[in-house]
Amino acid sequence: VALRQRCARLLQALLRIETWQNSEVRDGTDLETFSMMTKGCSELELEGLLEAPIYSNLQIEAAWLFLFEVRRRHFNRRMQIQDCTRILGSSHNWSMVLFGSKKIHESLRNM
Q1: Which of 8, 29, 21, 30 lies closest to 61, judged by CA?
Q2: pTM of this prediction?
Q3: pLDDT digit string (tens) for 13-45?
Q4: Which of 2, 4, 44, 77 could serve as 49's disulfide partner, Cβ 3.0–4.6 Å?
């Protein structure tokens, strides 16, 4: 329970990403979710909790795809995306999904 509380912001962003992906209407909520995700990444980097066993591979994959979609839609957010990508990429668990996902590879090819 304490671990989930310390990771709450990123977990909440991951849940919002899932809802956003399943929504047919993608309005401005992506920037709110992106803001929450970047803050969560920064907090967890400081605490070293990105390796916590509470993120599923599907959630991690969705987060990467979400970052790429935000990058495609909002070019002005590129520095924040680079910071978040650097933080997530430094995690073994998050980078393994990045390198192993066919959906992510396809998304990168389409950028």
Answers
A1: 21
A2: 0.87
A3: 999 998 888 876 666 668 889 999 999 888 888
A4: 44
